[in-house]
Structures are given as C-alpha cells and as structure tokens.
Amino acid sequence: MGLGVVGAIVETEVLLGYEKPPSADHGPIAGFAIAGGLLAAGVILQLRRRRRGGGASSPALPGRPDLEPRLLRAAKENAGRLTASEAALALDLPFDVVNESLAGLAAKDACRTLVTEEKVVVYYFPEFEDPASKRHDITER
After folding, report:
1. Residue 64 per-residue DSSP state
2. CA dist 35 to 10, 15, 24, 39, 41, Å?
3. d(CA 17, CA 10)
4. Which candidate, 108, 140, 110, 141, places its Cα nearest to that of 125?
5. Is the dihedral of CA 126, 130, 131, 137 positive or negative?
6. Residues 52, 119: Cα–Cα separation, whole Å
7. CB of 137 within 8 A of CB of 120?
8. Is the pTM of this model over 0.70?
9. Fewer CB within 10 Å: C terminus or N terminus of the chain?
10. Handedness of CA 76, 80, 81, 83 (dihedral sign)
C-alpha cells in the first residue's frame, strides 16, 4: 500500500509544478494510472498477508485463544456468569482483549450473550451455573 501512496505523492508534485515530469508525452493520466496500479498492488499484498495470518488478527479466530481456559475458569468461579469487566479485573488484562475473547467464545457457542436490565452484557455459561444464583433480570440477546 505504501507504493501506491508514493506514486500518488510523486504525481501530485508533478501536477503542482514542484517537479518536472519525466516525459511530457505521458501527462497526468499516466501518472495516476501508475499510482493506482501501485496502490492496487499494495492492497493485494496486504490481503494476502492477512489471509496467511501475517497481518491483523483473523476474523476466524477472534480474541486470544490462549485466554480461553482462563476465561472458562473465571466463569466457573462466578457460577457461569461473567462480564468483560469482571474478567479483565480477575485476569489483569485490558478490557478490549478480554471482551474480544469472550465474544469469540460466544461465536463458538461456548456461552450465550445476555443483557441485564441495566444494559450490562453478561456472558452466560450454562454448564457452570449454580442453581442458587439463577437470576431473572437478564434476557437473551
């Protein structure tokens, strides 16, 4: 993607008169075509890196799989109900990391997402539920 940006900057300098064009025969259209081609090549390379797992986190593996056992233990210790804030505090991790991992567990059907009357998102793990802690103030989302 950086190559496309460089091409666009060079062409902008030529159009503004800061730099002489390499050939007067090609004009600005050729410069923009080259810049567009370089930009497209950068985008294609970026997409290939992501597909191979070299880029940003893959949508197929949300969160951090290494956190899953720790989150499951925290859910069990909390009678099957866990919020991202509770988990972040218990595991001493950033809220966003924990929230993404819990959302990943919900996407894999390891838990359900519930919402309290106060609009707090609760991750519900039915197999860890303590019958005495059953609450009626949450609805499934």
Report:
1. -
2. 9, 13, 17, 6, 10
3. 11
4. 110
5. negative
6. 38
7. no
8. no
9. C
10. positive
Fold designation for 65-140: Arc Repressor Mutant, subunit A (1.10.10)
List of E strands, the chain: 81-82, 112-116, 121-124, 138-140
State CA 20 to chain mean position distance. Answer: 43
pLDDT digits (tens, 9 = 90+) for 67-121: 899 999 999 999 999 999 999 999 999 999 999 999 999 999 999 999 999 999 9
Tens digits of residue pLDDT in 29-78 = 656 566 556 566 666 667 666 666 544 443 334 556 688 999 999 999 99
- In order of 31, 40, 82, 93, 104, the CA distances from 122 in angstroms are 54, 42, 6, 18, 14
| Residue located via tokens 């070299």 | 54
List beta partners, residue 139. 115
Distance CA 57, CA 8 (A): 29
